[in-house]
């Protein structure tokens, strides 16, 4: 079996241990051994009954390049992987944007991606948006929706830049195309002709750019020496059920981390979710910042004696962080106590030894879950027209650029988990959420070999 495969009914058991694993942290297995904040309400300190009663913990629900039904996931080559930020650190100035900033960003993006598309296909020079003619010509712009709601075949617009369109848009008729894949915000080049002044018929739609790649990884750094595989576990918040603040899913995940001893654990926020009912009802008797420090301690304490590196990616939904996207990294006091704790902004680009990861904690709404290649071709972690609940700051959009395709791209989503390879270059992982409402969700585990990647999606 190659590539991704859904496991019917869950299938195929949990973590297969190499007999007699030595515990490095003493967990109390009783349901009462939970973690929760100081609170004025005792109800939130009670573990979620629905989560505790689950019967599918450890079930593998998706396999990628994995033929072994009882694979031993315990990491045997325990070297300390080197982590490097692939983007220069910079100061985030936010909440100073204007409407002009939005227009400037969209204009610049249309021009940049449009030129790349025209160059890839050697197209003729683009025409102004008000050009009409029965002879096919090229227009460049971004896809938009005419009115509220979802993009449909009869409400597709093409918006141009201030230079080629003076702020106007045109209706597109895609009915003659045998198939196409578009989304709001996507920059395209369209070969069109006009039968009327109002509507343009699309003869051909161009969406791809030439991709840039990082050099293939060798897995020879960080003490591995012999090119041994890299073990990585990935999970995405929220990390506690919606009816409790005991963080049992997170604690259960850390038990698996202690068992597997991966080289890296990648966790994307939020940890203290702004939408969680407890926080909206103001039931905490301590500051959010103090509670977040306690959460990090629960993550780091069990692995103190391991060589596992922990990478935390912030989220605009994190209550202790500014509500802006792109989002700067967390500010934590405990980083001085835990040198293996690494804080990154959302989105981020970093290398684990010489394997390059691109990660964002921001959900695109699932619209790109099956079309992850568009993220690479649009050269952006967030190429869509922003959803209403995404606090996008156009002055920070340099932080969203993805000019070079990473080896691994992590895109958490509320929609169904997946692991897939796109454009024959990047393995895309959606671990879904560790906690989903009242129940447990899933996490991902990867073994990165020199020539391939093996992956599972596992129920917590």
Automatic annotation (TrEMBL):
GO terms for molecular function: DNA binding. One of its GO terms (biological process) is DNA replication initiation. One of its GO terms (cellular component) is alpha DNA polymerase:primase complex. Gene3D superfamilies: 3.60.21.60. Residues 107-206 form the DNA polymerase alpha subunit B OB domain. Keywords: DNA replication, Nucleus. Residues 232-419 form the DNA polymerase alpha/delta/epsilon subunit B domain. Its main location: nucleus. It is found in: Nucleus. It comes from the Eukaryota. Belongs to the DNA polymerase alpha subunit B family. This is DNA polymerase alpha subunit B. It comes from Pediculus humanus subsp. corporis.
């Amino acid at each position: 079996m190659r590539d991704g495969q859904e496991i019917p009914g869950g299938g195929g058991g949990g973590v297969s241990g190499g007999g007699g694993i030595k515990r490095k942290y003493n967990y109390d297995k009783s349901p009462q051994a939970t973690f929760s904040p100081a609170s004025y309400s005792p109800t939130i300190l009670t573990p979620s009954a629905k989560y505790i009663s689950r019967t599918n913990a450890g079930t593998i629900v998706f396999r990628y390049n994995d033929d072994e039904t009882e694979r031993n996931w315990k990491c045997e080559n325990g070297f300390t992987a080197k982590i490097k930020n692939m983007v220069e650190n910079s100061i985030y100035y936010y909440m100073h944007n204007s409407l002009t900033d939005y227009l400037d960003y969209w204009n610049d993006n249309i021009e940049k991606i449009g030129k790349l598309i025209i160059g890839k296909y050697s197209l003729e020079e683009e025409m102004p948006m008000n050009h009409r003619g029965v002879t096919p010509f090229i227009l460049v712009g971004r896809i938009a929706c005419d009115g509220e709601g979802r993009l449909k075949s009869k409400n597709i617009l093409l918006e141009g830049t201030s230079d080629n369109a003076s702020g106007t848009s045109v209706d597109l008729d895609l009915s003659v195309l045998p198939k196409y894949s578009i989304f709001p915000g996507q920059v395209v080049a369209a070969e069109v002709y006009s039968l009327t002044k109002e509507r343009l018929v699309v003869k051909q739609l161009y969406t791809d750019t030439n991709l840039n790649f990082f050099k293939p990884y060798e897995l020879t750094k960080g003490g591995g020496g012999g090119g041994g595989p890299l073990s990585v576990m990935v999970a995405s918040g929220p990390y506690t059920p919606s009816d409790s603040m005991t963080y049992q899913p997170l604690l259960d995940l850390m038990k698996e981390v202690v068992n597997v001893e991966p080289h890296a654990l990648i966790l994307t926020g939020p940890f203290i979710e702004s939408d969680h009912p407890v926080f909206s009802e103001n039931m905490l008797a301590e500051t959010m910042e103090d509670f977040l420090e306690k959460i990090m301690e629960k993550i780091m304490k069990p692995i103190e004696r391991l060589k596992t590196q922990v990478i935390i990616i912030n989220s605009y939904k994190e209550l202790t962080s500014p509500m802006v996207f792109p989002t700067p990294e967390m500010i934590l006091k405990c980083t001085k106590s835990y040198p293996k704790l690494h804080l990154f902004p959302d989105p981020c680009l970093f290398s684990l030894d010489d394997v390059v990861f691109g990660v964002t904690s921001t959900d695109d709404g699932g619209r790109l879950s099956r079309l992850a290649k568009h993220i690479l071709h649009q050269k952006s972690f967030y190429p869509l027209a922003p959803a209403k609940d995404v606090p996008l700051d156009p002055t920070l959009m340099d932080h969203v650029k993805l000019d070079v395709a990473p080896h691994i791209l992590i895109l958490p989503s509320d929609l169904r988990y997946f692991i897939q390879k796109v454009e024959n270059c990047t393995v895309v992982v959606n671990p879904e959420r560790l906690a989903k409402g009242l129940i447990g969700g899933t996490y991902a585990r990867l073994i990165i070999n020199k020539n391939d990647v093996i992956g599972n999606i596992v129920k917590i």
